[in-house]
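Researcher: I'd like a structural prediction for the single chain below. Treat it as a standalone chain; there are no partners to consider.
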Amino acid sequence: MKRTQLYMDDEVWKALQIRAKQSKSTISELVRQAVREKYLDKKAERREAMLSAIGLWKNRIDLPDTETYVRALRDDDRLTRILK
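Model: Treating it as a single chain, here is the predicted structure.
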């Protein structure tokens, strides 16, 4: 764990003091929790969403074969026309 120092407005400090007393916690723990929720939980959610998308279109029959589609794109003579 690393140590840091924060400067807060009086209004924020007072709100954290009240919340810390109500939850029988410390201001430091409230700040750590808020930072975790803001910056770490979202990353885990995004990763989970990306992993759940793997193979999503795997068995689709309404889509053309990927290899055939890409090869058809590559058969275009656009590059030849551009280089003339």
